[in-house]
Amino acid sequence: MKLPLSGGCLCGQVRYEITAEPFGQGNCHCRACQRATGGAFVGALLVPAAAFRVSGEYREYAVTADSGNEVHRGFCPTCGTTLFARTTRIPTMRPVFAATLDEPDQFKPQADFWVNHTQPWVPMDPTLPKFKRDPPGAMAGKK
Questions:
Q1: Are 75 and 58 in contact (CB under 8 A)?
Q2: Which of 84, 112, 120, 133 is most buried, judged by most C-beta within 10 A?
């Protein structure tokens, strides 16, 4: 992966930069992510919070996730693009939505998680590990 990674919203008002390798990359199939994005799942890079910088004004919407943790999803107040999140589960990690990267081909999912909520019409890569809930330790930013 070539660093730094950058991305932003549809209208360009909110931009971000990632300056360190992600802890992990994966596809979250939880209902909260589905509802927040209007998609079947979210491809996310789980990046160190200290290596994540945002420019431009964004807003956050907080919800209680399927895990029981609070998740604050960052979005552009102008175009509505959901870009990233922060969670009370692991404050040192920032999930960044892969589709908002300037070069989304840099995203290489390593696992599918919250697969008990996968929509039946979504084909999943059979070579990726599957987790019923959150991904394991290091991928989720735990040491």
A1: yes
A2: 84
Element (H, E) at 45: strand 42-48
Please state the domain extents for the chain: 5-120
Element (H, E) at 54: strand 52-55
| Phi and psi, residue 66, nearest 5° | -55, -30
Spacing of C-alpha 122 from chain mean position? 18
pLDDT reading at 142 higher than 90: no
- Nearest 5°: phi and psi at 30? -65, 155
CA distances from 121 to 8, 35, 117, 118 (A): 29, 16, 12, 8
Indicate whether this model's pTM tops 0.85: yes
The answer to whether residue 140 scores a pLDDT higher than 70 is: no
CATH of domain 5-120: 2.170.150.70
pLDDT band at residue 141 under the 50/70/90 scheme: low
